[in-house]
Design brief:
Elements (H helix, E strand, L loop, with lengths): L14 E7 L2 E7 L5 H8 L18 E4 L2 E4 L12 E3 L12 H8 L9 H16 L18 H8 L9 H11 L5
Parallel strand pairs: 1-5
Antiparallel strand pairs: 1-2, 3-4, 3-5
Helix pairs in contact: 2-5, 3-4
């Protein structure tokens, strides 16, 4: 768009958005084009959620919104007014790891660690999806309870990529968390 002499572009209006992030209510004033990922990282300084591909293909930006996992790079922050958002920072602390975090450490479910926050949050969501009876592409019988099989877990975790190929260790961590050993 070209502007004539004397015309100027008007700034995009900023909108207030209130989010509950890791149990803490936070109000931000944002450009409506800001993704949830950028709101978390750049505005709230919660850098555990990673920007990988920025196209929703790698899962490094996975967070939980109202208990369901999403790729935060594909969602605008203003769409989550009043939502409960959980990031890796809300799970545990270095002194008191969440049991899934501890399982990842025990089973070396990470190498470079870049994808690990998204992997951990997805792992927790996968277990809840299966327990809630949400079918996946590999679910055989839609009438029966869904088994916590390796095939189900692998299929559901397929949206979280690990360049280091720590997949067997991630599976072992999930199994350990479930109390099934590895």
């Amino acid at each position: 768009m070209l502007f004539s002499r004397g015309e100027s572009m008007t700034a995009t209006p900023r909108l207030p958005v209130t989010l509950s992030v890791n149990g803490e209510v936070r109000t931000l004033t944002l450009d409506p084009r800001v993704t949830l990922l950028d709101a978390l990282r750049e505005h709230l300084l919660l850098t555990g959620t990673k920007k990988g591909c920025d196209q929703g293909q790698c899962g490094a930006c996975t967070v939980l919104v109202n208990g369901r996992r999403i790729n935060s790079c594909l969602s605008l922050a203003v769409m989550h007014e009043g939502d409960e958002i959980s990031t890796i920072e809300g799970l545990g602390t270095p002194e008191a790891l969440h049991p899934m975090q501890a399982a990842f450490v025990t089973h070396d479910g990470f190498q470079c660690g870049y994808c690990t926050p998204g992997q951990i949050l997805s792992s927790l969501a996968v277990i809840e999806e299966i327990r809630a009876g949400v079918p996946s592409h590999v679910t055989g019988d839609l009438e029966a309870p869904i088994p916590l099989s390796d095939a189900e877990i692998r299929e559901r975790m397929s949206g979280n990529l690990c360049r280091c190929a720590a997949y067997p260790n991630i599976m072992a961590a999930i199994r350990d968390y479930l109390g099934e050993g590895a």
